C-alpha cells in the first residue's frame, strides 16, 4: 500500500487538524477507529521509482520486512503462524476464483504503479481500523457472525435448489405450452448452469466497489422476480431466456457467499462455516426436485406452481435477508466511513486506502474486457507489474487451463463429476421410470443427494485432521488424502448406480450408488479449491477461475445429451462410462501426491512464483 511503500512518515493525527478540528476530534473519539496522517510527496514518489529501478520487479513484488498488510487482512491470518492453512478455505478461494480479492502484494504493486505513472497525492488522513472496533466484521459477536452465515448459505441452497426444481415440472410444462421437443425443454437446466459460468467474473469484482450487501440484494431481487416471469411464460423460448438470466443473478449466492464468510471469520475459524457453505450447495441440488415432484404430481399446471412457490419463499427470504445481512466487506465499510467524515468535517483529506484501490479495480474491469490476454505491463520504463489485467480472469482462463498440468488435471476431474451431478437431475427420472415411480416418489429419490451432502460434512473433520498432521512433511500434497479416497469412491458409486438400474432390482441399489458418488463429488469439490490455492499462491485466482469455469460448462453440457446417452448405450453402460472416465481421471490425486512438487517445478507459472518468492 502507499502508506507502507512510501518513505513519507506516517504519524497519528495530532495538532494538525482541519479548521473545524473540534468536530473532527469528537468524531474520531467516538468512532472506534484510527486516523493516520500521511503525506505523499514528490520525494516519496521518486524514492519509490528508485526502489523499483534498483530492486526490479521480482524484489518489488516479493515479500519484504517493510511490507505491512491492513488490519483486516492481518485479522484474517490470525493463527496461521501456528497452524497450516485450513483445508476448508474454499470460501476464500472460491472468492479469489472470481477475481474478488487482490493479495496485499498486488494492491501494493498497483498503487506504486499509479504513483510511478505520475499520480500525486496531497496530505492524507487515513481512516483505518482500531483494535476492537465494533464495526469491523472480524469483531462481530459469534451469534451475529453465525446468523449472517446461515442466511447467506441459505441463499446458496436456494440457487442450488432452483437448478433441480425445474426438472420435475417439465412434463406439465410441455403439455401447457404445447411443446413436444423434450431436448429443448432440457435447455432450461443447461442455460441455468451456463449462467453460473461467466457473469460472476464481472459481478464479484463489483462487490469491491459497491459492497457485498448491495450486490446480494439487487441480484437476489432480480433472481426472485424472474420466478414470476417463468411462471407466467407462454412459450418455451421465454422460459429458456429467463432461466439463463436467473442463473446469472443467482450465481452470487454461490460465488460471493464464500467471500462473506472470509470477511467474518479468521482462517483458523473458517472450517465449520465453510462446511456449512459446501453442504448447502450440494444439499440444495437434491432438495429442489424433492418437493417439486410432489407439486407436479398433485397440482394441475404444476410447473407454474413450482415457480410461484419459489417466488413466494425467496421473496419472503429477501425481506429477512435485507434486515439481517449487513455489509461485511471491511474495505467498503472504511470507505463509507471516510466519506461520512469528509462530509461531517468538510476536510477532503480523510480517506480509506481502498478508495485509491477502487479506481484501479474499475480500470481493470474495463481493461480486462477489452484486451485479449494478460501480459507484463511496463510502468515508468522499468518496473513490470504482473497481472495488470486480472481483476477479471476471462482472458487468462485458456492459458492456465491448458498449460498448467495441475490445473488441467483437477479441472477435468471436478468438471466430470459436476457434469455427472447435473446428469443425475435427468437420469434419476429415467431410472425411476423403470419402477413406475410417480413424480412424488421420484422426488424422494433425490433426497439421496441431500444425504450425501450431510455425510460429506461429517467426513470433513477427518480430512482436516489428516491435513494438519501431514502438512509439515507433505506441504500442499497433504490436501490430497481425502481426494485419493474420493478418486475410488466416484467410479464405485457410478458402478453401483449403473448395475442396479434394472426394473427387477430394488431402487435401493441406485439410491446407494447416488449417495456414494455424490459424497465423492463433495470431497473433490473441497480438495480442488484448497489444493490449487496452495499450489499457486497469489495466482490462485487464475487457477481457480479456470476450474470453476470448466466445471460450470460441463454442468451445462451434460444434460443436453444425457437422455440420448442412456437410450443409446443403455442405462447400465451410460452410467458406467462416466465411472470409467472418472477412474482414469481419479488417478490425478495419486500422481500429484507422488510427483506434485516435481510437476510444479516444471510448470512455468509455478516456477516463476517460486523465483519471485511468492510461494
Automatic annotation (TrEMBL):
MF GO annotations: transmembrane transporter activity
Presence of the UniProt keyword Ribonucleoprotein in the record: no
Classification via InterPro entries: MFS (IPR011701), MFS_dom (IPR020846), MFS_trans_sf (IPR036259)
Residue intervals of the Major facilitator superfamily (MFS) profile domain: 148-615
Stretches with biased composition (Low complexity): 64-73
CC per GO annotation: plasma membrane
Keyword Transmembrane: yes
Sequence ranges of Basic and acidic residues compositional bias: 79-102
A Pfam family the protein falls into: MFS_1
PROSITE patterns: MFS
Keywords in alphabetical order: Membrane, Transmembrane, Transmembrane helix
Membrane spanning residue stretches: 146-166, 186-203, 215-234, 240-262, 274-293, 305-325, 394-420, 440-459, 480-499, 511-532, 539-561, 573-593
Region (Disordered): 1-102
Compartments in which it is found: Membrane
Signal peptide: none
CDD domains: MFS_Tpo1_MDR_like (cd17323)
Taxonomy, superkingdom: Eukaryota
Membrane topology: Multi-pass membrane protein
Biased amino acid composition, Polar residues: 1-22
Cross-referenced PANTHER family: MAJOR FACILITATOR SUPERFAMILY, MAJOR FACILITATOR SUPERFAMILY (MFS) PROFILE DOMAIN-CONTAINING PROTEIN-RELATED
Name listed for the protein in its UniProt record: MFS general substrate transporter
Amino acid at each position: 500500500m502507499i502508506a507502507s511503500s512510501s518513505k513519507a512518515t506516517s504519524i497519528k493525527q495530532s495538532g494538525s487538524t482541519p479548521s473545524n478540528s473540534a468536530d473532527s476530534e469528537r468524531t474520531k473519539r467516538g468512532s472506534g477507529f484510527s486516523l493516520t496522517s500521511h503525506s505523499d510527496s514528490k520525494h516519496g514518489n521518486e524514492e519509490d521509482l528508485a526502489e523499483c529501478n534498483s530492486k526490479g520487479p521480482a524484489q518489488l513484488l516479493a515479500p519484504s520486512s517493510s511490507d505491512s498488510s491492513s488490519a483486516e487482512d492481518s485479522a484474517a491470518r490470525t493463527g496461521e503462524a501456528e497452524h497450516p492453512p485450513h483445508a476448508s478455505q474454499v470460501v476464500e478461494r472460491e472468492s479469489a476464483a472470481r477475481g474478488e480479492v487482490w493479495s496485499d502484494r498486488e494492491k501494493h504493486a498497483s498503487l506504486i504503479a499509479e504513483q510511478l505513472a505520475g499520480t500525486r497525492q496531497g496530505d492524507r488522513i487515513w481512516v483505518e481500523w482500531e483494535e476492537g472496533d465494533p464495526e469491523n466484521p472480524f469483531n462481530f459477536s459469534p451469534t451475529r457472525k453465525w446468523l449472517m452465515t446461515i442466511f447467506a448459505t441459505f441463499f446458496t441452497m436456494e440457487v442450488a435448489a432452483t437448478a433441480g426444481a425445474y426438472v420435475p415440472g417439465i412434463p406439465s410444462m410441455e403439455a401447457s405450452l404445447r411443446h413436444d421437443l423434450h431436448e429443448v425443454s432440457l435447455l432450461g437446466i443447461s442455460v441455468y448452469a451456463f449462467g453460473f459460468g461467466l457473469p460472476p467474473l464481472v459481478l464479484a469484482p463489483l462487490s469491491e466497489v459497491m459492497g457485498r450487501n448491495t450486490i446480494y440484494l439487487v441480484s437476489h431481487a432480480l433472481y426472485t422476480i424472474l420466478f414470476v416471469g417463468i411462471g407466467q411464460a407462454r412459450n418455451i423460448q421465454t422460459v429458456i431466456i429467463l432461466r439463463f438470466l436467473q442463473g446469472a443473478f443467482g450465481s452470487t449466492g454461490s460465488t460471493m457467499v464464500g467471500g462473506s464468510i472470509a470477511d467474518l471469520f479468521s482462517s483458523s475459524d473458517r472450517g465449520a462455516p465453510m462446511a456449512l457453505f459446501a453442504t448447502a450447495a450440494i444439499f440444495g441440488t437434491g432438495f429442489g426436485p424433492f418437493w417439486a415432484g410432489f407439486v407436479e404430481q398433485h397440482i394441475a399446471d404444476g410447473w407454474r406452481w413450482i415457480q410461484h412457490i419459489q417466488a413466494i419463499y425467496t421473496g419472503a427470504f429477501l425481506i429477512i435477508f435485507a434486515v439481517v445481512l449487513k455489509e461485511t466487506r471491511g474495505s467498503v465499510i472504511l470507505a463509507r466511513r471516510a466519506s461520512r467524515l469528509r462530509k461531517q468535517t468538510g476536510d477532503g483529506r480523510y480517506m480509506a486506502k481502498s478508495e485509491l484501490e477502487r479506481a484501479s479495480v474499475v480500470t481493470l474491469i474495463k481493461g480486462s474486457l477489452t484486451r485479449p490476454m494478460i501480459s507484463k505491463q511496463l510502468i515508468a520504463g522499468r518496473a513490470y507489474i504482473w497481472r495488470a489485467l486480472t481483476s477479471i480472469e476471462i482472458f487468462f482462463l485458456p492459458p492456465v487451463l491448458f498449460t498448467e498440468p495441475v490445473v488441467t488435471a483437477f479441472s477435468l476431474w471436478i468438471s466430470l463429476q459436476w457434469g455427472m451431478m447435473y446428469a443425475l437431475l435427468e437420469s434419476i427420472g429415467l431410472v425411476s421410470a423403470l419402477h413406475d415411480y410417480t413424480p412424488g416418489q421420484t422426488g424422494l429419490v433425490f433426497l439421496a443427494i441431500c444425504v450425501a451432502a450431510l455425510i460429506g460434512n461429517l467426513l470433513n473433520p477427518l480430512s482436516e485432521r489428516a491435513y494438519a498432521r501431514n502438512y509439515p512433511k507433505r506441504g500442499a500434497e497433504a490436501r490430497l488424502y481425502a481426494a485419493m479416497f474420493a478418486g475410488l469412491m466416484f467410479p464405485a458409486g457410478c458402478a453401483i448406480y449403473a448395475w442396479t438400474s434394472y426394473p427387477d432390482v430394488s431402487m435401493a441399489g441406485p439410491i446407494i450408488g447416488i449417495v456414494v458418488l455424490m459424497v465423492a463429488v463433495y470431497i473433490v469439490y473441497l480438495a480442488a479449491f484448497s489444493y490449487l490455492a496452495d499450489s499457486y499462491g497469489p495466482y490462485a485466482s487464475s487457477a481457480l477461475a479456470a476450474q470453476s469455469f470448466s466445471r460450470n460448462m460441463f454442468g451445462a453440457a451434460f444434460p443436453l445429451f444425457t437422455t440420448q446417452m442412456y437410450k443409446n448405450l443403455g442405462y447400465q453402460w451410460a452410467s458406467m462410462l462416466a465411472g470409467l472416465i472418472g477412474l482414469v481421471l481419479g488417478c490425478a490425486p495419486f500422481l500429484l501426491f507422488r510427483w506434485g512438487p516435481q510437476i510444479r517445478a516444471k510448470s512455468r507459472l509455478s516456477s516463476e512464483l517460486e523465483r519471485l518468492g511468492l510461494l
